[in-house]
Amino acid sequence: MSWSRPWWGKDKTIVRAGYGVSYQGAATYIAVDGAVGNLPGLNLFVEQTTNNYLGLSNFSLPVPASTTKPLEPIPLTDRQQTIQGYEDKRVNPYVQNWNLEIQRELAKNLTFEARYVGSKATKLWAPFPLNDVNVFENGILNAYNITRAGGDALLFDQMLRGRDLGLGIVNGTTVTGSASLRNNSLFRAFIANGDVGQFANLLNTSPTATGQAGGLVRNGGFAENFIVVNPQFQSVTLNGNSPNSTYHSMQLQVTKRLSQGFTNQTSYTWSRAIGLAGTGDTNPDRTASYRNPRNIALDKGLLSFHRTHAIRSNGTWQLPFGPNQKFLGNVPGLVQRLVERWQLGGIMSWNSGAPLDINGSTSSINATTSIMTPNLVGNFPKNIGKVTKLANGVTYFDGLQVVTDPTRANVSSLQGLQGAFSNRVIVDSQGRILLANPAPGEVGSLGLKWIEGPARLNLDMNLVKRVRLTETKEFELRIDAINILNKPIFTDFGNNNANLDINSLNFGRITGAIGSRAFTLNARVNF
Amino acid sequence: MPGFQTRTYSDVNLGVSQQVRLNFALQVGSVAQAVEVTVAADTLIATSSSSVGTVLPEYKVRDLPLLTRNVIDLVGTTAGTQGSNFAGGRPGQVNTTRDGTTSLPPLV
Question: What is the ipTM, given to two decimal places?
């Protein structure tokens, strides 16, 4: 809808509004085929490398059949394979867009636009985990906490009775299940550091002391699905269709139309993009990991492409030299040819930083450590980050320190458990704790995408000289400079943002930057 | 045109879908004179257009610095874009067409 309003002059002010719905294209069946085509039992790969099969003289028929049967059930002692499927009513996502704009002509060849632009994406594709470990209803969390504090949990006596994990045969009296777990090198670090999710996953899959995956669960007489609901698989993923996301923005734009050899367009965008946190740039929008799979709404936050502020400007300016220009208009013809038709061009962009996750790499609920956030204990405001160059590198959190988590004192020293404790906390310059790992069974109280990373400034420029050869042909020489300021863009917090993990001694360290300056020289003939 | 003097019309505002006829009566001139026709497609006030957004006219595509020679990279100069995301939409939700035909497959 366009509505010309006679405010302060005819056709000087335009009000526009729009609404649209668009449906995303269907999934490529390459992706679907990749997901369902690798289900256990659907593929059989037999590689014959033995010399007997490499020469016809040694070849005999029939070729031995594989011992694997197509689509045979996965045994409960496997527990390593992955499987994924698709929700029955999975449909194409759709996006609704709406906008409202006022455009005003400020002066000749100069306009100003103020607009609101919003959108909502609905029924986005996303995977959901169906096989995360359970530590609540089955009592594992309670038994885990008892064991961590140095006590003996009856649950683990039952689970490990008659088995030897390195401390002797578990009998519940002189050798307890809890002591055996604390003593075992596979379980010890998980117990010491609050990784109850990984601890439960190991109980569910480890062949330790029994010789078969799931043997510990089976040994205690528990149901096969005591810890996960699909015990024959390591992970089960349902590709679903429920997440939504929203985008709201205010955009201000000034446009100087090309006249007198000069044009410019400058805009400012203030926006917010919110959805189920993930990459946001691809589909599905995230991996199948949630801080708490029982409450995935907790993971709603800023999307990775969110930028609070963005300023963009581009323009060209023909330099005022030569015939009919302000300078050097009456010089000899050869000089005129040399000085005329030089043009400067430029693109400037400045964005506030990309939202970042602060990670507390503790599997306090499920077996995934990479997505858990720490607890917000002290004053850690959203704008706390600032790129600071130190003598030995660059940091984003100058003044903050990484120290050993004082909850170490609550971890038992029995069986060397406390020695395996490696959790840390972030403290300020006065030693006050700001961020700490969540306790076993807890979701970190710090939200996803809590802070914004370093801002980006980029300026590209070019200089163009055009020489008319004939009326229909001209020669053009231009040099384009990308990132002419050669300003580094600090983006790299280590591999997989490892330096945003509060348990890393390198917390806050920026280890890399992009944005090198590049020049290209072009010569061409236009006709 | 060869052999004719310059004739210029200025301040001709052209809205979307509007047509204006301007007749040129050219006078014979010297060979050294030239006629330059410059068209700025970013119409100043397109009173009949309901489109909200930004026009990227041909002269900007030609004149702005562009290392990759990929015109899509210039889309990032407009408001509301962030990387491959447009007004909150994902790459898979953008349909790029040329002459009415989809030129890029949807990203899924």
Answer: 0.73
